[in-house]
Amino acid sequence: MAKVKITKSDGQVFEVSDLTFEQVKDLLGFSSNSPLSRTHVSLNPAERGPDYEGFASAISDHAKAFFLILGQSPHGISLDHLATGMGFDTPMKIGGVTGGGIAKLAPKFGLKSADLYERYVGRKNGERVVVYKAGKDFPKLPLK
After folding, report:
1. pLDDT over 50 (residue 67)
2. pTM, whole model, 2 decimals?
3. pLDDT band at 27 (very low <50, low <70, confident <90, very high)
4. Distance from C-alpha of 99 to C-alpha of 25, rounded to nearest angstrom
5. Domain ranges for the chain
6. CA–CA distance from 141 to each of 38, 40, 104 (Å)?
7. Is the pLDDT score of 40 beyond 60?
8. Is 29 left (phi over 0), alpha (psi -120 to 50) or beta?
9. Residue 55 CB: number of other CB atoms within 10 A?
10. 124 in helix, strand or coil?
């Protein structure tokens, strides 16, 4: 009979005894007839499917405010009005929310930021205008 000690990174030790070598292999997933060796669990978020709830709970308060304002603006909202609504003194701060706060976090939850919000750049009366609008997956976000 084998005696197995497993030490976790936090120093916690688990000890299992009175097992045969084959049982230990099954337990650890090294045996060909072990159910663990036949199951595939991916760490790739894209293979697990989108996690809207996890994403919504992980984003910052500014990102939540961004999405809530988009939800109240079904036809889109200009960058200037969006920044004002979020309490920013300059529209450039939206880039930190959308880039660092949303675009970097979304793939970790199997999401694409382009599906959560859309950004349009155009010209009106010779001036550059940026408009944000809720994306196709926006309604799936459980925002409070």
Report:
1. yes
2. 0.67
3. low
4. 46
5. 2-39, 47-140
6. 34, 28, 17
7. no
8. left
9. 23
10. strand
